[in-house]
């Protein structure tokens, strides 16, 4: 008679390792997705600050239409912005839309922010 040995069989060990590997891959995928989302949110937040700064700079000028592009430094990064002005029904109010990009050559905008500005006649 053969004595009964205690422990796991090779099949049981392989099944446990397969289950652990799948769980580990799911955890790594979730962590990677979370890190990508954080980087995206950080870029959008910094771009929004740059757009807000550009709109504030435009609102302080007597003739904001003369300044159509510029750069802001936010978060140790240079952000390039471009302003487009649209006349409204009211003669002394303009709608300003500021588009922020990480570089001048970039075609993708990181953030777009608009505001109505009162201009002096």
Automatic annotation (TrEMBL):
InterPro entries: N_methyl_site, Pilin-like, T2SS_GspI_C, T2SS_protein-GspI. Residues 41-116 form the Type II secretion system protein GspI C-terminal domain. GO terms for biological process: protein secretion by the type II secretion system. The keyword Transit peptide does not apply. It is a single-pass membrane protein. One of its GO terms (cellular component) is type II protein secretion system complex. It is found in: Cell inner membrane. Its main location: membrane. Cleaved by prepilin peptidase. It comes from the Bacteria. Keywords: Cell inner membrane, Cell membrane, Membrane, Methylation, Transmembrane, Transmembrane helix. Belongs to the GSP I family. Component of the type II secretion system required for the energy-dependent secretion of extracellular factors such as proteases and toxins from the periplasm. Type II secretion is composed of four main components: the outer membrane complex, the inner membrane complex, the cytoplasmic secretion ATPase and the periplasm-spanning pseudopilus. This is Type II secretion system protein I. It comes from Pseudidiomarina terrestris.
